[in-house]
Amino acid sequence: MSNTVKLTLKDKAIVYFVASMALLSLAIIFVPFYTGYIDQAFANKLIWTDATAIAGIFSYFAIKMNQAMKKQ
């Protein structure tokens, strides 16, 4: 017995979009930070924004999995 949660195309699109935006924003944070264009405080704010977006993905899929388990 395997309880697999099927991901729809919309779910996959959301995941790939947010993951690519997270990676892009990390690159946007770290490249100017290491070259000295932005300071530590501004980089920390951007990193927390990025972490919030990634936590949003995990909570979205936790809700989806919870709904899938209730349907069984």
Query: What value does the average pLDDT take?
Result: 75
Question: Which structural class matches the secondary elements?
Answer: mainly alpha
Tell me the count of domains: 1
Q: Largest sheet at a glance?
A: none
- The gyration radius over C-alpha positions equals 17 Å
The amount of beta strand, in percent, is under 5%
Task: Give the CA-based shape.
Answer: elongated
**Portion of residues within helices:** over 70%
Describe the structure.
- With 72 residues, this protein is mostly helical.
- The chain has one domain.
- The protein is 82% helix and 0% strand.
- The protein is built from 2 helices and no strands.
- Helix 1 runs antiparallel to helix 2.
- The two termini are 12 Å apart.
- The model has no long low-confidence stretch (mean pLDDT 75).
